[in-house]
Structure prediction request, 568 residues.
Amino acid sequence: MAPKSTPASSETAFNAFNTLWKAYRDGTSDRLKFIDSFLFFLMLSGIVQFAYCILVSNFPYNAFLAGFSSTVGQFVLAASLRSQVNPDNKDEFKDVSPERAFADFALGSIVLHFFVYNFLG
Amino acid sequence: MFALKRVLLLAVGLASLVSATSSTGNSVLVVVEPKRQDDFSMFFEGLKDQGYELTFRQPKDEKPLIAEYDVAAFAHVVLLASETKNFAKDITPQSLVDLLRLKTNLIIALSTKQTPLSLLAPEFSLILPPPGTPLISYFPKRDEPASLVPITPTKRDATQIISDTSKPIWFSGVPQALGSNPQLVPILHAPAESFASEIDGGSADALVDSAEKGGEGLWAGSQLSVVTGFQTLDGARVTWVGGVDLFSDELAQKVGPDGLKSGNAAFARDIVAWTFQESLVLRIDKVEHHRVNETGPSELYTTNDELVFNAYISKFNPKQGSWEPYSGINDMQLEFTMLDPHIRTALPPVRSVPGKYSVTFRAPDRHGVFKFVVDYKRKGWSHLHSSVTVPIVPPRHDGYPRFLSAAWPYYAGAISTSIAFFLFSALWLAGEVRESAKRPGKAGKAE
Prediction:
């Protein structure tokens, strides 16, 4: 690639981002987008809790661990659900139907929340 | 049989309570050479007047025994046979130490001669000068021999034991240098200008020689003691008197060159009062502990509880022969220990209740098995020791707030995650139904 000036490069980066965003919007199924929005919410929630812990107080430390790990654990479970229901990964998860993947996700989440609420108080 | 003996003893004890003076008993064994017994008649009469029952025994007599089957036969033993070299079989340094273990109090007189008793003295941290070297002082100028020394008690002496510090105490005998044992109670020190030396051969050159040897070489000055008490850890008391003549009638009646009467009789009385557990005798009647705003003790306490500790202390009143509440201790401390004192705090007297000492403190933020320890040891006073064990436990699961406002972001995070999970699941399943309904149409296109 030929060297370019800074505004040009930022413009390119913006263009690249736009292209990526467009490709994502057009090329991703609604189901995966739905999962992605859930993941985004979990990430925000985790960031908020971590910032509160650092900036304000980690005092009931068990509460912080419970709250933060519930977001992290839910994120991991949702992410694995996303990779299993993604049609692009069909070859890798031949034995796992999307229904089975969701059942795994739901069971894992219920167990996770059980532990989280036990640890919260 | 044993019970009968107990009852008899109790009856005797009650009967003698009226004139009782000692807190531990009135039976006294006096071991004295028969030819010197009359020299101490005033001392003995004084003891009898106070209510003591004297039993006399010659040093070589076989009976009465000082202890039989490991039970002490007398409450107190006075050994005035200071020059005797051979005692009966049962009076040995070892048996005297055993007597102290049985809480018998001893008065032991020493002399310039080497006897079994002077060999026992080093075991009590008393360092005696060589045999044949009495205490000598040429001051003040007087007609009496240089080895008969008038000693006026000073502030350095045990003023809580000596009742009258104005009259001189005439002393003739051997001084003792004191070791570092904290259980020693020096009662009367030698005058500053006195020294231990041979009476005749004590030339100035010999003195300089011995001074140059340093330390052990010279027994001189006011750091020497002539009458020294010793209190064992069990509370038995033993008093070492450098010369037996201190108790004699002759010195008790003596009038000094300046017309002052001798203080020997009163001083002998003071020695007896301290040694026979009449004066400076304390005991802890009971200790209590409970939480603030409660009255009874608790099986276990929680970390950070506010605790109250009370101790009730009595002092023996020899005149009444009874124990009386005593609030005069101002430097007592309470320790709350688990291996180390986690808390050490003053245990001051409560002004409104005589004999009561109380302190309120917060239990440490540390769980474990703790002890309330009162350990009060002061020279001359009987030792006070009390130790009560209590467990300190962490708060119970319902003993502290579980949900705090500071943690609301975390609770909100966990709850919102759950709600989001349910919403997500519901929408996902709804979407699946919708999709499967549409699928027949779309399926052909996709494939």
Q: What stands out?
A: The interface with chain B takes residues 30-31, 34, 38, 41-42, 45-46, 48-49, 52, 56-57, 59-60, 63-64, 66-68, 70-71, 74, 78, 99, 102, 106, 109, 113, 116-117, 120-121 of chain A (CB under 8 Å). Residues 30-55 of chain A form the longest helix (26 residues).
